Amino acid sequence: MNTQQDQVDNISRHIQGMNFRASCMPNISLNENGSQSKLVHDYRVLIEKTSVLQKELNVLKRTQEILEIRSEASFSHLKAQEKHAGLSGYREMQQRLEVTSEETAALDALKEQTLNEISSIVSGIKANVLEKQAMLAPKVRGGHEINLIIRNRCLIHAEH
């Protein structure tokens, strides 16, 4: 007959075989009908999903390693072909040219933004000048009239 200690040992071995610590397992409680609670069921489903995702992650990591190795091999082969054709350094130059082109495009966008800002500022200044000019035009005309009156009086006064 199995003793209670043997049953505990069997359960411990079973939990260790499931590849997670018993401390992670929530307290198992049975419903009135003797079945597991929904919480335990959900927990086990999550453990299975985690296991599947871990396996997929491992496959993806290995795939990435293989692709990196192939990429390095392809680049070394390409480099050898460039050297053989007398175009050593072509790929590096092409990459630098692409980086420079991207930087130039970014600077052009920045210049365009700056020019648009300057254009809006100039438009605002022009609108202010036109507004003030329209406001001052009657005063200037009045000033010309006063200036003519003063000149006429000065001429009259100079003649006497």
What descriptive keywords fit this protein?
160 residues; elongated; mainly alpha; 0% strand; 82% helix; single chain
Describe, in plain words, how this protein is organized in 3D.
- The chain has helices at 4-17, 38-85, 90-159.
- It has 160 residues and is mostly helical.
- It has a domain at 4-88.
- The longest helix is centred in the last third of the chain and has 70 residues, at 90-159.
- 0% of the residues are buried.
Helices, by number, come to 3
Rounded mean pLDDT is 82
Please report the total strand number as a whole number: 0
Low-confidence stretches: 19-23
Order of helix and strand elements from N to C terminus: HHH
Share of helical residues? over 70%
How would a textbook summarize the main sheet? none
Class from secondary-structure proportions:
mainly alpha
**Gap between N and C termini:** 149 Å
